[in-house]
Amino acid sequence: MSKFVKLLHIIKNADGFQDSANKIQILVDAADKRELIHLVENVGIIPESLGASSSQEKCFAKASDIVAARAFQELNMQAKAITERGNAADIVAKSIHRSYSLVSDAKAFRLSRTAKNQKDFKVDALSKWRGSNNYAILIAPYFQYPNKESQIYEQSLNENVLLFSWEHLAILLKLDLEENDSLTLEQLWNFPIKHKKTIKASETRKNFFLAFNKYFAKELKISWSKLSELLEEEIENIESRAKEEKQYWKNKEMIIKSYSKEKAIEELVKELKISQKSKAIERYIRGLHNVKEKYLTER
Hints:
This protein is α/β, with parallel strands linked by helices and 299 residues long. It contains 14 helices and five strands. Helix content is 58%, strand content 9%. Helix 1 packs antiparallel against helix 4 and helix 3 crosses helix 4.
């Protein structure tokens, strides 16, 4: 059983968010290099089997933070996933051999979710969360970034927030790279400032990943063909996951088709959360009466 399968087992069976986070931390800490790479390659894709906006999905988001932090550790940096939820970055990392630190925000998306906008990436927020740290890095699925133009590219360049990816992070690990006295990754994190100096003001919203990939290869001293080969491996991994996610829905469809009419109605009512929504409306109306008695009734 792979570490990723074990991770999903924890999420689906743990007793609450904190219990899940603690067990995932132990699992990820125990992963060897090969297992960590497999986790990095998979935590950017939210499994279809996890309910949308569910507690399990929130646990999966925390798992992505923990995996990203462990990956930074593997690059020979001090890093940790922030346990508090709220107005802060997911990860804080500090270079051991160089005098810089960074914050990072880890993002995961479903393969079935195609419509994304700049608010999903929170580039501006990540810039603010940087605080006294030198760099800010967004880690999201490479092929989920907008293809042509987007406000997030302009935000990245203006705020010096690196649009990074799980795929590029996996590549760093596959190349067995780590910071030391002779190697620094600092200029990699500093790509937005460097790139902005090379383009026209009218081009700031354009997708810059071709330029980033060339910069990435140059900084790491690898050939373009080697980088292409490594990215192709990541595409194959995504295609493999896509087959699994499609099979989930195919199985779901077969189960639904086997329902009796009564069972189908019962499941639809449950799926629409009709009872919960009716109770929410009732609570709202009760609240209106409380407001009326408190502020609108003469005493």
